Each structure stands twice: as structure tokens, then as C-alpha cells.
Amino acid sequence: MAPKSRGAFTVPTTKPLSDSLRLPSNSPNVWKTLSRLSRPSLIALAAQWCEKDNLKTCGPYILSKGEEDDPEAAYAAAESLAEVKALYTEDLPSRRGSKREVVDRILEGDWRHGISMRQLAMAETQYVLDHQSANRWTALCLVPRGDDDEGREEKVRPHLPRLHAATFLRSLQNEISPVAKAHFHLHRPDTLPVTVLRIYLHDTPYNTTTALRTVSTNGRSRKADPSEPPKSIFVLFPSGTPYIYVSLASSGAHLTDPESKSLQKFVVEAIPKALSRPGRRFEIRSTGLIARSLTALLAHRGAEGTNAAAGGWSIFVTDSKGRNALDFTDASDVASRDEIEDAEANKENPAILPGLKKRIFSHSDPTSNLDARARKRLKLLATSRFGNYALPEDGKNLHNFSVQIKDSFDRRPEARKISEDRVFVDDNDGGVREGGSFKPEVRLTFQGAHVFAGLRTLVEKGVIDGGRMPGWMTGEAGVSVGVVKEGRIEVTSL
């Protein structure tokens, strides 16, 4: 008599999580991920799942011949793939409806058997592309390690690592597998010149559907908390640049527990190791740039000629007026544009129009008492300092700009000179006196929808003296975090 089977068992593996592994359709994380998408994006995504290349991992639930449908199901099961395709390519796009209707149709109808890891990755990636300001992105730079290239002529030339998708993902998996199980998804969007890598992390040594419902903590397995968001990391590789953009976000919210932060930091440090090869090792360095806008990142750390041409230097890159950037003689078009803007501003200013009450919490225009010539001079001064940069709709908006000033605040110019043999003396007012010079701890933080556009507006209104304003306040350094020494801003570690 044959012994009774004890059931299937699993063993730890170093392979990544498969695309075909499915999460239950009633999972809170699955429902939350799909609900964040708009109705048109949901319909387009479901239609993409029905394409021939995606059927193996993203195919819908089709009723087999002779199989009876569940009478308690909210939606009738489709009997053919063509029926599901027609629903998401013809029926739903042609009529009006709610987003909740599409989500319920996907989870309780056509994909009632579960959402695969690839489908979940495609949904999260689509959300990132639809809402490009939803995540907080950090720009990092890939540079060759100096100890590997010492004494070579090639060290002078800039080198970019070769990115072969299959080889890179295999190497990255080898780096991550000792710590956590990961699922990788690569996508090349049509709207941005970047390659998107989505990394899903799960604390388990197993590669099964059951393992997705449990997590390992201190060597012990426990049931996953439905309210706990998945640990997803997005890494963007801009085309033709040594930069990478990293978003340490999870389902739209930043992780705060130390264990998750250390795990994500480990993954980021594994990226240059996966791109390295014998004789050519890479490491990542800070660029001092953090932004919520992908267009701003591409403008400051992209493949275009605007990386080192922010602030007033932008006139040497863009030639919007059809003449040489060094030719400042013909300013008739600038004057006419300023006159039109002044006329429109006078119409819209409630403080100038008679018979109108001043709105609550509104501020009067500081230039309302100035004549047209003085207002024009302020705008020309702002243009000379900012150039074509820091315009409200230029797509280069930074939401935060923080600097630490380490210059001395002495009035005498000779007291600002730095000497190596000065002695540091603590001061009672919280600062530090270095051989007689006063250096307090000063940190400035600017926040807003477009920080440098706001500073440019303050110059145009005469609130900030544009002639004496330091260059780092124009955004010419292209950083969001830095240290000011001797009037110049330096990149600091993030």
C-alpha cells in the first residue's frame, strides 16, 4: 500500500518572483492600486492585458467549454477572448460611467481569478506616468570608481554603462536575493525618453503564490497585513545620460520604518554593482537635486543641453527669439511683450480697478504705485538674472529649495578672508566665531509650486533686489539642496 501524500512543499530559491504569480482579486493592495488610476487609464490598461503578447501572464478569465459559471458572481464570465477585447476597446470607451464600475468589472468579473505580478506592476507604472508629480524623485549620478581607472587615458572620457535588460536584471537579482525576494518590471514609455524599472520587494525566501501572503520578520513567517502597502521602488534611466532617478515611495506614501528604509537603500546601492563589469566599476553620487516633476528632472539632469544652463545661463541654450544669444541690441519685441503684460496686469489687479472691494487674504501689487518705466526696468532686471528660466509654465518647477549658509556675516571685507590658523571660539548667541569672524548656523528653505518662478516674480515686483541677489537664488546651479561657501553653492549629500 502506497504511503499517503503529505502535500506539496516548497524550498527557498534565489529566483525572482515570477510574472505569472497571482494575488487574490479581493486583496486590498490590488484594489487600492487599480482605484488610483483614472477611468480611461484603467480601460486602456485592461485592453493592453488582452493583447497577444500579454495573454500568458495577464490573460482574463474565460469560461471553458462545458464549465458552468458561478451563479453568485457579480458579472457573467466571458466565453471568448474577443468578447473581453470588445468590452474594453469598444463598449466601455464609447459610453460614460464611473471608475468604480471599471474596477469592479475587472476584479469581480474578467479577472476574478486574480491579478498577476506583471499586471500589478503595469498598473503602478501607469500611475507614475499619469501623475508625474505624485512621487518624490532623487537624481543620482553613475560615475566610474577612481581606484579602477587610475592611470588610464579612458578616465578622462565620460563612459556610460551598457544597459542590457536581461543581463542587468539577472545581476541585480543576484545582489538582492540574499536579502529579499524581488519582482522586476521594465517599461519604455512613448511620452518620456526614459526606461522605467519597477522593483517590488517581498520579505520571503520562497517563490510561490502562498509566499506572497506571508512576510518574514526576524526569521519568522507571519501573515501579511492587508493594510501594509507593498514595497515598490521606481528607478528611471534617462536615455544617453549617466543619471538615474530613484523614487523611494510605496503606493504613493513614503515608508517611515527603519527596516524598510534600509532595505530600499540596499537596493539603490545594488544598482551600480549590477551595472559594473570586470575592469569597470561604477558607484552612485549625489547630485543635490530632489524634485517631484519628471520634466524638471529631465531638464536639469537629462540628455538635453540644459543640465548646466539654468538661471541666467539659459539664454545660451534656447534661441527662442531667432537671433544670437549674445545680441542684446534689438529689444523691441521684449518691450512690446512687457507693455502687453503690464496692461493685462492692470486689468486683473483688484487694487487698481475702482469700485471693487479688496479680497480677504489678498496682497496688493507692490508695483502698483510705480510708473510703467520703473515696472519695465524691474522686469528687464529679472530677465537679465533669470533669462528664459523660472517661468510659470516651463515645466522645470522645483517644490523645495534648501541651502545652508556657511559664510561669515562680518561687515568688513578683510574679516571675510579665510585663514588656516584661525581658532574656533564658541559664541553665546548660537554662532561660531572663527578668529573674530561671525558664522552663525543659517539655513534657508523655500517651498512652493515653483520656487524659482516665485523668486523671479518677487524680483519683478521689487520685493527682492535683483541686482544684489546672489546667483544661487536664480537656480543656476540646478540643485535643490546645497551649501553656500564664499557666495557659491556646493552640492551636499542627500
Automatic annotation (TrEMBL):
InterPro entries in the record: Chl4/mis15/CENP-N (IPR007902)
A Pfam family hit: CENP-N
Top-level lineage group: Eukaryota
Region (Disordered): 1-21
GO biological process, one term: CENP-A containing chromatin assembly
Gene3D superfamilies per UniProt: 3.10.20.720
Biased composition (Polar residues): 11-21
UniProt protein name: CHL4 family chromosome segregation protein
Organism per entry: Verruconis gallopava
Top-level taxonomy: Eukaryota, Fungi, Dikarya, Ascomycota, Pezizomycotina
